[in-house]
Write a structure and sequence with these properties.
This protein is an alpha/beta fold. It has five helices and four strands; from the N terminus they run βαβαβαβαα. It has a four-stranded parallel sheet with strand order 2-1-3-4, sandwiched between helices. Strand 1, helix 1 and strand 2 form a beta-alpha-beta unit. It starts with 28 loop residues before the first strand and ends in a 12-residue tail after the last helix.
Length: 180
Amino acid sequence: MTGRLSPRAGRRGAAPGTGRLAPGRGRRFGIAVSRFNDRITRRLLEAAVEALHEAGVAPNALTVIEVPGAFELPLAAQTLCRTGRYDAVICLGAVIRGDTPHFDLIAGATAQGIMNVGLAEGCPVIFGVLATDTMAQALARVDPHGMNRGREAAETALEMAGVMRQLQGRKGRRSDAVTE
């Protein structure tokens, strides 16, 4: 069926030596990463950058912005989106439960803020923020040889960049979109 949009359209293309597809060539990505819980967020960032490079994204096509904590991620993501230079923005952070309700407030507000930015700006904004009860749970989600949510966030960004290009029927970035 012609004109049908596949959820996997443009997901991956052949990256040298990986057997994976590389849809990242010619695309630009912004990454906003929280410094708080940097033992976790550093691993998220390393895996995300590695996945983007494996997919063919050039090193100079990545912009990494550090923010103090997860709560500040939505504003950084919005600012990156508004430049019109990025095919997608990835938000990386870690919120680990403590003894007070602070966890619930920060985790909920961060998730809502990131979602709102993507909807308001029309730019894929990927939620790569861990919300765990313990440090051990967070560490299990940033294993460099196993599951890593930073890698998954990058893969989602690559896929959504392809989906948005297909939906908008263009090859350029967001700023090229036609508005009605």
